[in-house]
Batch of 2 targets.
Target 1
Amino acid sequence: MKKFNKSYLVHKALQPLRNFSFQGKKYHYFCHKYNSSHLNERAVELPIVWAEVQRYKSYEVLEIGNVLSHYFPTKHLVVDKYEVAPGIINKDVVEFKTKKKFKLIISISTLEHVGWDEEVKSKGKIPQAIRHLQTLLAPGGTLFITLPLGYNSYLDEHLRTGKIKFDETFYMERVSKFNSWREVDSDILKKKPKYGSPYENANVVVFGKVKKSFAKDITHLAGTFVPRSNKNISVLETREKMEKTYRQMC
Ligand SMILES: C[S@@+](CC[C@H](N)C(=O)[O-])C[C@H]1O[C@@H](n2cnc3c(N)ncnc32)[C@H](O)[C@@H]1O
């Protein structure tokens, strides 16, 4: 039996017994033959991101970089510059334009390639991509990105200096040859983890969330929208009340 099959079968057999914690929740390590997910960072990225995706309708979700469809039955829109497959839009992330807004935009270990594995390197292209993706979020929407550390030195520097700053940032570190991971704090950035060492592929993965508030998008309603049911409601009603009303309209 090939070594690959053996390691897959061992991980598959142990999968129900092995789990990890992320943000207070328990997840099973993901085990799949495609790209040997059981041996690398996909083991933690996939269960975390897939749990998030399942909270939404597929038309509310945009994925940058075609990853999830290799493992799950997906129906959401995917933008990927190079991977050719039915339904994938082959566009550079910064060039993808649409009038549609998404409640959830996800990207699994993709943005580290942007401006790095390209003919012309560009230090500013990942921040540009993140800003661009924020413009595609619906009010109340979330951008959820995973990124390996140590792969792209521009990215690592942006994270260390705060040029790239998420609303919420979490870190997972690989801690064993058998592909066990644990959540760690931001001090891990100072340790400058390497990609490919001590373990193959990523040794630390950053999970970043950017949330688009309702408030930013309801300011234009302030002077124009008065709920039909109560014409006396002042346009100066609390932000909370307006957000609730806006959500009901959507
Ligand atoms: C994480 S890999 C996906 C590889 C593989 N499908 C997997 O599941 O691991 C990153 C993906 O990002 C895409 N990509 C790289 N640069 C891009 C860019 N500037 N805009 C959009 N997609 C890009 C590549 O085509 C590649 O499919």
Target 2
Amino acid sequence: MHQPHSPQSSAPATGRGAASADSPAAAAMVDLRDVHLTLVGTAGPVNILRGLTLAIPAGQSVGVVGPSGSGKSTLLAVMAGLERAQGGQVQVAGQDLSRLGEDGLALFRRQRLGIVFQSFHLIPTMTALENVAVPLELAGRRDAFDRAESALDSVGLAHRRTHYPTQLSGGEQQRVALARAAAGEPDLLLADEPTGNLDATTGGGIVDLMFALQARHGTTLVLITHDEGLARACDRMVRISDGRITEDSGDAGADRAAAKAARAAGG
Ligand SMILES: Nc1ncnc2c1ncn2[C@@H]1O[C@H](COP(=O)(O)OP(=O)(O)OP(=O)(O)O)[C@@H](O)[C@H]1O
Ligand SMILES: [Mg+2]
């Protein structure tokens, strides 16, 4: 189903997801326009996203930063079709998410997305290995368990595969969640604080893994983080405040992307 991608570079890409200079929107993996979302809590309505516009070309890595409560996780939920925008347009991987029903959205997520939730969302009654393998099985991968084993291995958790989530540390749960999100080589990986519970060395390994996925498969990465160093290591950094984009480094990171691709190709 997935085409192998050549490593990313700042030169025009080829194949699906190719960005062309004259029609960037056509190649956008994420295209959000004037998105509005208000949720009603016990204390009344909260106007969370207030006209947020963001287009992300296929294959780009974007670090999203912003203060606590600014709407980052909500933005991720909108991109994943887990929250519906009340205004504006939400197009992801060429799909207008407002046109999909709940089943369609579930299928869309299974086939195209990998999501690392801020609170992991592992299934408590399944082992680490099952947590990673079951979504692959649901997506029809016959090699689900083999893939899951190697995904767990790549996050350094081969020795924990029979552990249940309650038998794992916070950082280990986070790594299982990352293995689950990455194992299917998604077109779009959405990660909410993927290194939030990890020490610098382990976190660095996880970040390398995500960038390797980007280089190898052309995966578009959206990494929500409080770590500005990680955000700056992405091709592009955007800042969100009060439910809007207030800063965008644009393509300033294109050189870094090329250097990263060269490193990935060499190693
Ligand atoms: N279901 C909900 N009902 C009402 N308000 C909500 C709901 N979910 C989130 N909010 C509010 O929306 C705002 C944005 O929340 P969100 O989780 O997107 O922030 P965030 O930028 O991810 O913050 P953090 O960095 O702390 O994770 C917060 O003020 C939060 O209290
Ligand atoms: Mg959050």
